[in-house]
Design goal:
Largest sheet: 4 strands, antiparallel
Radius of gyration: 18 Å
Strand order of the largest sheet: 1-2-3-4
Distance between the termini: 45 Å
Order of helices and strands: HHEEEE
Number of strands: 4
Helix content: 25-40%
Structural class: alpha+beta
Number of helices: 2
Shape: elongated
Strand content: 15-25%
């Protein structure tokens, strides 16, 4: 029986490890978006509107929401509803619409938005961390 050399084992193990690491980073990003969603709904319950809600206000409501909570390259997005890419646009939330997003260290983005047609979950299409081919999660 031939011996398996360490290079062959590394060639198999490293890609598998990196894929699992990316899945974990994306799971963290999804959790942050869910926490942000709960926080923005709390802010809306207080004022009756999403308008004027800022990232700082979300951080006040839930201190676990941070720009670097899932690693140093993670970013928080808050804007009006634009879920086509998994990232929010730069416009501020309106009275009835919002978009919250979180970009993971892996570079994949996840968002939750509402524009009157209900809540939509979007993400970077084709990522490893659970984004369906349709761009939803």
């Amino acid at each position: 029986m031939p011996a398996i050399d360490s290079i062959a084992v590394a060639a198999i193990a490293i890609p598998s490890f990196l894929g699992q690491r990316e899945k974990g980073q994306d799971a963290c990003a999804k959790a942050m978006v869910k926490n942000m969603h709960t926080a923005i709904m709390s802010a809306q319950a207080e004022t009756g509107s999403f308008q004027g809600v800022t990232a700082a206000r979300l951080f006040e409501i839930d201190t676990t929401i941070t720009g670097g909570g899932c690693g140093p390259a993670s970013t928080v997005g808050l804007g009006s509803a634009n879920a086509s890419t998994g990232v929010c646009d730069a416009a501020a939330p309106t009275r009835a619409t919002y978009c919250i997003s979180y970009t993971s260290v892996s570079g994949n983005s996840f968002s939750i938005s509402e524009s009157g047609a209900g809540v939509v979950r979007s993400c970077t299409v084709g990522n490893v961390g659970g984004c369906k081919g349709t761009g939803s999660w």
